[in-house]
Amino acid sequence: MRLRSHTKKVLESENDQRKEQPSSDAYEINESEEEQQIDLEDQKLDVKDINGDEQDEHMDNVQWGSSFQSNNTSGLVYLSRIPPFMKPAKIKHLLSQFGDVGRVYLAPEDSKIKARRIKYKKNRKQNYTEGWVEFMDKKVAKKVAKALNAQPIGGNKRDVYHDDLWNIKYLPKFKWNNLTEQIVYENKERTHRLQAEISKSRREIKDYIKKVEKSKLIRNIEQKKAKRMAVENESLS
């Protein structure tokens, strides 16, 4: 999926820079050995959802709204894995302990996977695959990503998420508008694919109808021919 690929490219670019210019910066991000394989190809992401013009269950709605604006000092972190059934409000609550959090977006799981889960496990809770969180200070975002990555979520020992691990990366030079621009591009691509599939289906249906009509015409001709031959045979006898 292009959105995740774009996020990965940002991380790889940061890795290359770190190899060329080693730094002792206290906020330097720790890269994991391999990325989680997350597929958003079938997710119905909406630009309004990302921007916060419309509130829904995929977002924390405390500070969402069309008037909410990013600034040059804000920074984004990427969550490559969301603990089972953890909601955006919970994510924001946990991360707000370390700094001011702006917008939060969690990508819902594939609709087909959710349908199977509901069918076989009767679990209708919303599950998420990955997410993006905006910190109002990019230095805080960088520090939080370094400190929390691969660490237990912790908190109350009775909390169901106590032993889950954070999978969090800082996205250098990545702003919320980069996320929305990518969503616009992917929505256009999805629309083009759907239009192509619809056109292909229509052509296939038309071809099928033509074949059926031709088959029916041939069958009628053969039936008439058989009847005519039967009448001729009767007249001869």
Automatic annotation (TrEMBL):
Residues 28-40 have a biased composition (Acidic residues). Residues 1-42 are annotated as: Disordered. One of its GO terms (biological process) is endonucleolytic cleavage in ITS1 to separate SSU-rRNA from 5.8S rRNA and LSU-rRNA from tricistronic rRNA transcript (SSU-rRNA, 5.8S rRNA, LSU-rRNA). Gene3D superfamilies: 3.30.70.330. It is found in: Nucleus, Nucleolus. One of its GO terms (cellular component) is nucleolus. GO terms for molecular function: RNA binding. PANTHER family: ACTIVATOR OF BASAL TRANSCRIPTION 1. This is 18S rRNA factor 2. It comes from Dentiscutata erythropus.
